[in-house]
Amino acid sequence: MQPLPELPVQLTIERLGQLGEGVASWQGRTVFVPGTFPGDTVRVHLELQGRVLRGILRQMVSPGPDRREEPCVHSRDCGGCDWLGLAEPAQRAAKQEIVLSTLEHLGRLSRDSFTVRPLLVAPRDWGYRRRAVLHPTGKATLGYFGRRSHERVPVEVCGALTPVLTALPGKLAPLLKPLAKDAEEVMLLAEGDQAAFAVNLQGPVTPRHLEAAEAAVRALRLQGAVLTPKEGSARLIGKPALRSYSPLRPEVPLYLRPDAFAQAHAEANVGLVTSAIYELGAHDSDSVLELYSGNGNFTFPLAGGAASVLGVESSPVGVELAQRSAREGGVTNVRFIQGDARKVCDGLVAEQRRFDVCLADPPRAGAPGLAKWMTALGIRRVVYVACDPASLARDAAGLVEAGYKPLALQVVDMFPQTHHVEAVMSFERAA
C-alpha cells in the first residue's frame, strides 16, 4: 500500500456518506472528510483510522454551491447539527439518496424493486427539537458532545431546541451544581409550553440531589423532574409526565417523560406515524403485533383501525406511560408486554400465536432476527420504522430472503440540520 503523503492534499467532495461526512477520492481510494459538503474543494491531511481513510480539514479552498453560513456560534465544535452549513434542499436530497444507496449496497435491494415515495419534509427546520441530552462540563455548565468526540462543548442557549427549551441549558446548569459531579447526563423535554428534565446519576439519589432538583423545578417553573440512580427506582419530582395527544387520535392522551424516548420533532412525528399506518394498511379485523412500542406513539393510531394490538416494549417507563394513555383514553383493544422483543417473540412463537400484520420501530441497532419471527408468527405484512439506514438494509435483506417482498419506502426528514433520518418501509409476504 502506498504511504500517505505528509503534506495536505487537495480534494473535491463528491457526495455525503451515511454518517454525514463528505466523501472524496484520492488515488482510487475513498476518503471521508468531516465538516465538508458536495462541491467543496478542500485541502486535507490524510489519516488512516483503522481501515477508513479520513481527511482532516486544513483549508477550505472554495465552497460548494449548497454551502451557507452557519447560524450558530457552536456549530464548528458541537456534535449536534452537523449539516447546519448545508442548504435544506441539498440536505433532503442527500438523505433520500443515502437511504436508497444503503439499501442497494448493504441490503442488495434495487431501488427499482419497490415504490419510492417523495421525502416527507419537516414543518420546521430550526427550533424544533423537543428533547435534548446534555452533560455536565465541570464548570457549572451543561454541554453537548463535540464532533466525533466526547469532549464537552458548553452551551447556554441552543437555537435548535423549541422556544421553551432554548435558554434552559444556561438557566438549569447553575441550579444543578450541587449534583453535577454525580450526574452522567441531563435530559430536557418539552411539550408545547411545558418542560421537564431528568438526571441520570452515577450512584444513588441523595437528599442533596433531591433538594437541588426541587429548587430547579420551582425556580424555573417546570412541570417536574426525574432523578434516576445507577440502581433502583427513579425519584419523581412534581409531574414530569407531560401530556400530549396521540397522532391521528387526539381523543387519546399521550404521555412523555424526560427519562423515556420520544421523537425529537413533534410535527414531523405526526407525518411519520401517518405514513407508517398507511403503509401497514391494517383491516378492522386484523390482529397487530407492535415491536418496540415505547410510550404508545404508534399504538393508539394502530388500534383505531384494527381488531387488537399487542405492544412489546423493554422500557418499564414506556409501558407505564402507554398503559396510562390507554386507561385515560378508554382504549380497550390494546395490551402491552414489558420485555425484550427477542425473548417475547420467541415466547409467542412457542405459544403458536398468530398475527396478521406487524409494525416494528427498533432502536438504532435494528431488529436482528426479525424475519424469523415474522415467518413463524404468520404475519402477512411488515412495516419497519428505521432511524439507521444500515440496520434497515440488513433487516430488509433478511425479510426478502425469508420471502417478503419490499413494497414502498418513505423517508422522513425528522432531524433537519443533521445527517440523521427516519425511514418507513413496508414488506408483504409473497403469495
Q: What's the structural domain tally?
A: 3
* Radius of gyration of CA atoms, rounded to a whole number: 23 Å
Distance between the termini: 51 Å
Q: Taking strands numbered 1, 2, ... along the chain, how are they ordered across the largest sheet?
A: 7-22-23-21-20-17-18-19
Shape: globular
| Strand-pairing-aware structural class | alpha/beta
Which CATH-level-2 architecture of the largest domain? 3-Layer(aba) Sandwich
Unreliable spans: none
The CATH class name of the largest domain reads Alpha Beta
What is the helical fraction, as a range of percent?
A: 25-40%
Count of helical stretches: 10
Average pLDDT level = 95
Biggest beta sheet attributes = 8 strands, mixed
Number of extended strands: 23
Strand content: 25-35%
CATH superfamily of the largest domain: Vaccinia Virus protein VP39
CATH topology of the largest domain: Rossmann fold
Question: Your description of this structure?
Answer:
GO terms for molecular function: rRNA (uridine-C5-)-methyltransferase activity. Keywords: 4Fe-4S, Iron, Iron-sulfur, Metal-binding, Methyltransferase, S-adenosyl-L-methionine, Transferase. Pfam families: tRNA_U5-meth_tr. This is RNA methyltransferase, TrmA family. The active site is at 387 (nucleophile), 387. α1 (88-105) runs parallel beside α10 (389-401) and α9 (370-376) packs parallel to α10 (389-401). It is built from ten helices and 23 strands. It folds into three domains: 9-62, Beta Barrel (OB fold (Dihydrolipoamide Acetyltransferase, E2P)); 96-123 and 265-428, Rossmann fold (3-Layer(aba) Sandwich), CATH 3.40.50.150; 131-242, OB fold (Dihydrolipoamide Acetyltransferase, E2P) (Beta Barrel), CATH 2.40.50. The chain is globular. The chain is 25% helix and 31% strand. α7 links the parallel β18 and β19 (334-338). The chain is an alpha/beta fold and 431 residues long. The strands form five sheets. The chain has an eight-stranded mixed sheet, sandwiched between helices. The chain has a seven-stranded mixed sheet with strand order 10-9-8-11-12-13-14. Strands 1-5-6 form a three-stranded antiparallel sheet, with no helix packed on it. The model has no long low-confidence stretch (mean pLDDT 95).
